[in-house]
Amino acid sequence: MKQYLLTPPHQVAQAQALGLPLAHMAYQLDRQGRLVQAGNGQGDLMLIGVPEAPEHGTAPGQTVREILTRCAKGGFLGVILDLETPPTPYLARLIRELDEGLAKARKGLFLPETYSAYSQRALLYLSSAISGGSLEGRLREAAEAYGPQRLTLSLHRTCRDFFLPSPDGQGRPISQEELHQRMERLEPRVFFSPQLCARYFTYMSRDTGAHFVLFDDGETLKKKRDLALSLGIQRFFWVYPEIEDIYKEIFRA
User: Which of 31-35, 46-50, 53-57, 152-156 shows the lowest mean pLDDT across its residues?
Assistant: First the structure.
């Protein structure tokens, strides 16, 4: 089993104390395709946020050279592309050239599962946070499609409030503080969903009607990890700021 902590620059020292490899959340591509740094991570993985697909400016080849240079200087073993937009011709070329460059350097590339068609070599990651269906079914389907050895499960700490009914299944993100305040005020009966592998409760609001709150804690996140392991998935991402208050429960012997 391999576990990585996705960590912003200001929390690197705290995260390193856990003794797990880090994915440094210190890099981003701007709208011109330039690599922007917010820190100087060293070793393990280099995470590059891509909130918007570049449309013009720096050519993909130049961007790739910048990434490979920084990757070599930092001693990184691989690159995670955190792609938040649908595929574009620019991103397709960037992925192809970066994949080739990293392969020559014997380094890995991690892509979202939705970008699986753009590389036959890259490792694919998918989120544990679902609001419908079955997490086991979702993971089993992905393992059958790509092989479990190619997959990484990104263990996100779900905390969302849904209106009922919820046609889009999105819900509103709420903070842990909001969750605790709501539970103290409502004293709801909390249930565990085996399908979603998360806890939930419902409540009524005079103003907005029926609500459904879905959330994770240390135990549900470990259950998700165990489920993935049972299907042969051996690689995991954890977002350090999400688990900062519960990491002892998650990683204790």
Answer: 53-57
The two three-digit tokens of residue 138, written as one number: 């979702």
Q: Is the peptide bond before 165 cis (omega within 30 degrees of 0)?
A: yes
CATH number (domain holding residue 78): 3.20.20.80
pLDDT confidence tier of residue 112, bands split at 50, 70 and 90:
very high
Same-domain pairing of 102 and 149: yes
Residue 231 to residues 22, 143, 199, 225: CA-CA distances in angstroms? 24, 7, 22, 10
pLDDT given for residue 167 in this prediction: 66
Angle subtended by helix axes 60-74 and 89-104, to nearest 10 = 40
Give me the pLDDT at residue 57, please. 66
* Helices 135-146 & 218-230 angle (0-180, nearest 10): 40
User: Distance (Å, rounded) from C-alpha 143 to C-alpha 235?
Assistant: 12
Element (H, E) at 7: strand 2-7
Q: Which of 124, 139, 70, 130 is nearest to 102 (CA)?
A: 70
What phi and psi values does residue 74 have, to the nearest 5 degrees? -85, -5
Mean pLDDT score of the chain? 93
- The domain in which residue 22 lies consists of 2-157+217-251
- pLDDT-based confidence at 50, cuts 50/70/90? very high
